[in-house]
Amino acid sequence: MADIAVRTVSYPTLTTSTKPAIHVGERPVDQFSGLSGEAITEGAPVRIDSATGKVLNALATTAPNAAAKGIALKTVAANQAVTIVSRGTIEGHNLDAMAYGAAVYLSNTAGRVADAAGTVSTVIGYVFGVRGDVPNAPMSKLLKVTL
To answer: Which residue of 3, 17, 72, 110 has the fewest CB atoms within a 10 Å radius of its CB?
Structure first.
């Protein structure tokens, strides 16, 4: 299993000169906000702590830790508001090495997604292709979150 990196810098697209590393690629999208219980990095799969109700990094090591609810849209410190996408297409994970339609899994590493299942197999979504406005250009690979 290999963790999938989040692009670490803003990058140009067809419609703007730069965008944040993780952003919503389409509407409609299901999203919600919560209070972080620890530092969370943009692009991280997250869960809700059953004792505190705070948002924590998800990881596939145990069933409670693997109860992912979505992907964080920004980097926050503990006790800050964070927006989470639970269903929709997001751009920013480096999916170049993966096939279109391939499942993207929760990693055994906290706050990361991977190309194969961790200890507790949790599918976060799949690789989705989107063609831009340029004719005959290759399709971009985005993460279709299906939690």
So the answer is: 17
Percent helix / strand / coil, the chain, rounded to 5: 0, 40, 60
Reduced to 3 states, what is the DSSP secondary structure of residue 56? strand
Q: Summarize pLDDT for 77-91 with one digit per residue, the tens.
A: 999 999 999 998 888
Taking a C-beta distance cutoff of 8 angstroms, is the pair 49, 2 a contact?
no
From CA 67, how far away is CA 147, in angstroms rounded? 10
Cβ–Cβ under 8 Å, residues 71 and 44 = yes
Tokens for 53?
């109700």
The three-class DSSP label of residue 47 is strand
The candidate with the shortest Cα–Cα distance to 4, out of 138, 111, 129, 139, is: 111
Question: CA 85 to CA 22: how far, in whole Å?
Answer: 11
Between β-strands 103-106 and 113-114, what pairing exists: parallel, antiparallel or unpaired?
antiparallel
- pLDDT for res 8: 52
